[in-house]
Amino acid sequence: MSAQPVEIQIFGRSLKINCPLEKQEALEKAKEDLEQRLQDLRERTKVTNTEQLVFIVGLNLCAELTQEKVKTDEEERKKCDYIAKMEFRITELQKVIDRALPK
Question: What is the pTM of this model?
């Protein structure tokens, strides 16, 4: 998994990024997403300062990531609770079966 330098253009700026060959497609999609977000924000807010746009989009992305992490953690907690309940029920059912079967 050796990284190759890849040149990408974002908002008229050229960046060279080392990226493994198998992740270059994902990098391209990320670049397109970033450009779209920057363009949408520029049109919505009329902010023209690229640095400001980048910081705002970065903060928005971090907020989205945080929300997804919270959501994922909550889903994981629910799954763990469900598993614990099922294990308890199985144990209780096993006890009932053991009592019902002749020894």
Answer: 0.73
Domains of the chain by residue range = 3-100
pLDDT in tens, 47-77: 999 999 999 999 999 999 999 999 999 999 9
Assess if CATH 3.90.1150.10 describes domain 3-100.
no
Please tell me the distance from the alpha carbon of residue 64 to that of residue 57, in angstroms, as a whole number.
Answer: 10
pLDDT digits (tens, 9 = 90+) for 75-88: 999 999 999 999 99
* Burial class, 86, CB count within 10 angstroms (exposed 0-12 / middle 13-18 / buried 19+): exposed
Amino acid identity of residue 13, one-letter, is R
